[in-house]
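Recap quiz, item 2
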Amino acid sequence: MSRKIRVVQYGIGAIGCAVTRVLTRKGEMEIVGAIDLRNVGRDLGDIAKTGKELGVVISDDADAVLRDNRPDVVIHTTSSSLKKVYPELQKAIKAGVNVVSSTEELSYPYMKQPELAVLIDKMAKDNQVTILGTGVNPGFLMDAWPLFMTGVCAEVKEIRITRIQDASLRRIPFQKKIGAGKTVQEFNEFVKAGTLRHVGLYESITMIAAGLGWELDDITETTEPIIYETEVESQYISVKPGQVAGVKQTGYGWNDGNVLITLNFEASIGAKESYDAVYITGEPSMEVTIKGGVNGDIATSAILVNSIARVINSPKGLITMKDLVISALQSKQSE
Amino acid sequence: MSRKIRVVQYGIGAIGCAVTRVLTRKGEMEIVGAIDLRNVGRDLGDIAKTGKELGVVISDDADAVLRDNRPDVVIHTTSSSLKKVYPELQKAIKAGVNVVSSTEELSYPYMKQPELAVLIDKMAKDNQVTILGTGVNPGFLMDAWPLFMTGVCAEVKEIRITRIQDASLRRIPFQKKIGAGKTVQEFNEFVKAGTLRHVGLYESITMIAAGLGWELDDITETTEPIIYETEVESQYISVKPGQVAGVKQTGYGWNDGNVLITLNFEASIGAKESYDAVYITGEPSMEVTIKGGVNGDIATSAILVNSIARVINSPKGLITMKDLVISALQSKQSE
């Protein structure tokens, strides 16, 4: 390898810290800067608990970090909302730096935020960089992975993805995010307020449809509490019978009254087993299972880092995970 | 979609015919020519049993077909041996046409046939085309699929892939290829002569190693007969107890006395269950299973067709499936 890939990290929260720990194990990568509003002046290695100082000081001056360190790529891990992170992405792109971002709404932004998607694509092309939104979900388990599996299908008629998670193994913000320990009333208020939800089902459904050349005429989502009859607990939270142990969220992609895509996401403290599964109805049909499921925190940091080489070598502009897999694209429905 | 992708098929055997049947279902593709030494003058639709004539006449004049039909891509399905098909690939490349080929030895040719790999890559770049070798195996199940799954791993220490096939569901040339119905002596003679083997383990092992940044110092293979104590049969062949029902072939990738990669391929008439599985030891470890396994004939024709769009949009030159997935590339071992 000629020279190391120079990486700036933008966002040093839980995922950012996990990214740091992955990056320091990669011989071909070098962290040359870190941006966050918290822990300014502290060494990135201390904050990310890598076991040693890295000589990289966290700064809140994004422009200076991007300008002074000549990075090849920014790993961006600050927020789920594309609107919220847009100014941050803009800074990186205008500095001429490729971006890999964990922002869920960037994973497939063309349907929900078409104006921002066009703006980002144009800006990236103008500045000769590539930008990708990825992560374990959205970005892999409920979109890229099933699309990849369809690569050996001559035809796909329907696709169903299930992710069942035992949340007691995840970090506490995740356990709180899924509503563990709340009353049903609190849960329903949170659902109404839009704060309790896994961000990404809509993005994954639209990405799958695009990857298969399917036209959808409706996308619907339901969110329900998961309640058990016995007490369940994690290291952090104890859930009494009748209290909410987690969330069951289901997304459907419709065409002409038929469900073509179903994404079912369940995360609860006390889930009997964790697994991820893809069910393809087609030629051939397929049932693919990941026993125990994929741990989301490790996986998201890993795929952010593993995507770097592909992003640097991809065509300029905004790309999505759909563009990086071979899928069973079929134009029959739109003929 | 602006205009249809123009496809020439080079090789109209069993896989070529399956490719034809897939292509005729894809609205965005158009078959504009067919090349084979057999069935010259016959309509491709008749030979491939598509249910109707396609208006494409099989020709043995490859140069004329490639020149006169201005194809965007050739789907090449003639032989496993790269040396044997090299003149055919050369015709397509020199005609300025992209190539997707089922030639097993093309799937990762850099170790066994480095001179040919360099020649093909240069020729493709000179003629501004892209060439890819793919298929279900090699090309997907024992290389691209496991590599793709490592995309969510922060580290990979060992990888093991198992493909168990009930051969009674496959076409008869496949059943004969795996030695079904032979005596042990005949089987061993065939193994010695090199005619009885699944081509691709070596290619898959070297592709995985490259995709993960691993250096191997040895690659070994074993081939054994599978023998059952009771009579087993398919639609075509009956296998008496003590006769060979199929083959068990195992490939190992070694580094410093340790096995890092194990590919285990078993195909027999009378296998109890069919499945494909990937076992990754790493962070996280993963066990991924395809229940019932993937039907090889459908899958190979499907992935050849599904690869077309990616090949047309990829950088020019010789590419491999490794270049089309995000994997857990790690340079630690070579530091």
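The radius of gyration of chain A is 20 Å.
Chain A has two domains: 5-135+300-324, 144-294.
End of item.
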